[in-house]
Design a protein that fits this description.
Blueprint: H1 6-25, H2 31-59, H3 62-85, H4 94-114
């Protein structure tokens, strides 16, 4: 049996998390099940973070920043798509915070790009 590539692992984890997201949304998981799931996701996250930290030592300090930026892109894209489809409830208070943050974030991006690189 051949080993899975890192991208295969990512696809598999993403599919599993999407399935869990659907189950949580339909209240299929019990409170105890959700607590167990959270604990395991936290454990995996910490292990992945440790791997990334070890890799960052060899790839320079920018690798963690790039990881965070890619994660921000992924989350922002997903939330945007869900809002556009109407699959995310519009009454969440956090949406107000995101709406206020949008212009500030845009300005910070423009300012950062205008500064000379260190």
């Amino acid at each position: 049996m051949s080993e899975m590539s890192p991208s295969d692992h990512v696809r598999s984890m993403r599919a599993s998390l999407q399935m869990l997201d659907l189950q949580v949304g339909r209240s299929v998981l019990s409170a105890a099940g959700i607590a167990d799931l959270k604990r395991e996701i936290d454990n995996v996250r910490l292990r992945i973070w440790a791997i990334m930290a070890a890799e960052a030592e060899h790839q320079g300090p920018g690798s963690l920043e790039r990881f965070r930026l890619r994660r921000a892109i992924e989350i922002t894209s997903t939330v945007t798509e869900e809002l556009e489809r109407g699959s995310m409830a519009s009454e969440h208070a956090e949406l107000d915070a995101l709406e206020k943050l949008g212009p500030r974030f845009s300005l910070a991006l423009r300012s950062a790009r205008a500064r000379p690189s260190a």
